[in-house]
Amino acid sequence: MSNPTAGPAAGRLxxxxxxxxxxxxxxxxxxxxxxSTYLPRFYAGHLGIxxxxxxxxxxxVRLIDIGFDLVIGFGMDRTRTRFGRYRLWFxxxxxxxAYATYKILNPPADxxxxxxxxxxxxxxTGTSIVTLSHAAWAAALAxxxxxxxxxxGWMQAVGVIGSVSLLMTPILTHGAIQPGKGExxxxxxxxxxxxxxxxxxxxxxxxxxxxxxxxxxxAGLKDYLAVFTTxxxxxxxxxxxxxxxxxxxxxxxxxxxxxxxxxxPIKEVxxxxxxxxxxxxxxAPIWARIAQRLGxxxxxQVACVCYAICQTVLMxxxxxxxxxxxxxxxAVGFCTSAFVLLIRAMVADISDQIRLETGQNxxxxxxxxxxxxxxxxxxxxxxxxxxxxxAVGYNAKDEAMNTAAAxxxxxxxxxxxxxxLVLVGGALFFGYKLDKDRHADIRQQLDARDAALTExxxxxxxxxxxxxxxxxxxxx
Length: 476
Known about the structure:
Elements: H1 15-22, H2 25-46, H3 51-77, H4 86-105, H5 113-141, H6 145-167, H7 169-172, H8 185-206, H9 221-227, H10 231-248, H11 254-261, H12 266-294, H13 296-316, H14 322-358, H15 363-391, H16 404-427, H17 436-463, E1 466-467, E2 474-475
Antiparallel strand pairs: 1-2
C-alpha cells in the first residue's frame, strides 16, 4: 500500500488522508460532550447523588488526571517503534476508552460517589492517551505553518459531525434516544463504542506516522522541566487556560440554564446545542483560512472579541424563543470553534522551535500541557460553579421547583465569567513572536538538518568498508 503521507513537508496532505485521520474525533467528541454536559445531570438528577458530591468527584479526578497527562506525554516522546510513536499509543488507548465508556454510562442502580470516581479515573486516562496521541500525531503529519491550521481545522470540523449526530438522536430515533434523559445513556454508550473500531482503523491504516529524523538525543527530566519556562509556551498555556475557563463555565450548567432560566424543555435544550456545535463545520475552515492571512495568534484575538459580542447578545435574547436563541448559539459556537484548532496548531509550531533548539521531540509533553489546562480549567469551573448554585439554593433534581433567587444565581454564573476570561485569553497574545515568517525559517533549518542526518544515516554502513589487498576487494 502506498504511503499517502509521504513527504508531508513538501506539500499538502490529501483531503482523503486528512478526513480518514480526523474521523477518529467523531466518537471522541461524542464522549466529550456526554462527560462535560450530560454526565453531571445524569448522576445528580437520575441517580440522585448530591450535586456537590458530583462536583467534588469530577474536580478530584480532573486534578489527579493532570499528573497522568504529563506522564503519558513523557512516555509518548520516548517511544520508538516501526509502527510509529503517537500512532501506537492511540491504538492502545482505544480499547481502554471503549470499556470505560460502557461502565460509566451503565452504572448499577446503587452506584455512588466511589463508583463515579473509579470510572472517571479510568475513562479520563483513556481519553488522555487517545486525545494526546492524536493531537501530537497530527503535528507529525502536517509540518507547514498553514498546513497545520488546515489539519486541525479539519479535525475540528469532522469532530462536529459526531457532536451534531449525537444531538440529532432525538429526531433520528423519534424520541427513543435523548441525551438529556438518564434512560438513554446506555444506548449512547453503545453508539460510541460501535463507532470506535471503524474510525480507529481509518486513522491507523490511512494516515501512517512518518518517523522524525532528528531526535538525536532523548529528553531527560531536566529538559522537560525547561519546557515549562519556554516563553511562547508559557504564554500559550496561560491563554489556553483562560479560553477553557471561559466557555467551560457554561458547560456543566448548560442544561440547567436553558431549561430553568430560559424556559426551554429538555428536548429543545439538546437541540440548541446543534447550532452551537454545528457552527464548527463552518467556523473551523473559515478561521483556518483567516489564520493563513492574519496569522494564528491575531486570528485568535479576533475570535475572542467576536465571542464577547455574541455571548452578550445571546444573554439578552428573550426567553423561550427557539429560533432567535438557535441563531445566537450558532454565532457563539462559530467564535469558540477557533480556540482549540488554533491553540493546537500553535503548539505544533512551538514544538518545531524546541526541536530546532534542543534536538528533542517533545510534542507529547507540549500537548499534555494544553490538555492539562483543559482538565484543570474544567475542574475549577465545576468546583466553583456547583457550590455557588448550592449556596443560592438551586436544586438540580429532575422536576425540582427553584426560587427566583436561585434562578438569578444560575444566570449570573452563566453570564459574567465567560466574557471576561476569553478577553483576557486574547489579550495574552499581544507580543507573541512565533508568526508565519519565523516558523518558515525554523522549518527551513529543520528540513535541512533532517536531510543531512538522513543522508549521514544512509552512508553510515559504507564507513566500515575498506579495500582488500591490491585495492580490489572490499572487506569488513
